[in-house]
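User: Predict the complex with guanosine-5'-monophosphate.
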Amino acid sequence: MENLIKGNLLVLSGPSGCGKNTVLDALMAKDDAICQTVSATTRAARVGERNGVDYYFLSEKDFLHRVENDEFVEYVKYANRYYGTLKSEIDSNLNSGKTVVMVIEVNGAQNIKRLYPQAKTIFLMPPSPDLLRDRILGRGEMDAEELDRRLSIAMKEMEKKDDYDFIVINDELDKAVEDVYKIINL
Ligand code: 5GP
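Assistant: Here is the predicted structure with guanosine-5'-monophosphate placed in the model:
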């Protein structure tokens, strides 16, 4: 069923390490009418990440219980962990007329576009694939297996970039933020 919305819904995807969250933080600092959905995940929190701010960190049991209760608008398994957007995260913000940005991976993006055809989808590309490895590694706390898994997902994700409404290259942060901001205001 198609959802009717008052606000602007924006889906931002891109390979792990391409700078999606940095772009989003800059957008929110620029304009109070832009907010983000906080996803739920079963992965462990990284150093500095806060529950309820960066993610809702849930046990797998709790996550799957919420799936059964139909609390998610979409969810996926990514790198062996669950990630999903709770319905409550989208509806309240959109109804207040805000621009809601979801930073989610490619399968979730497709699901959202099906449910909310008015949503604008943007794929953020790194200037070069080589940079991804360094950026992903720069987050620390990742074993070689996890790094390989994320890099191979990233390569597959980049093959899906043409399914998006817009592609933005994150070569220079300010320029990428400006490009996304223009798309929001189209
Ligand atoms: P990370 O573990 O690096 O925070 O996130 C891994 C991937 O999961 C990223 O591409 C991120 O955008 C995506 N992701 C985060 N939250 C959600 C969500 O709620 N739904 C979906 N489909 N993907 C998500």
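The pocket of guanosine-5'-monophosphate is lined by residues 16, 39, 43, 74, 76, 78, 83-85, 103-105, 108 (CB under 6 Å).
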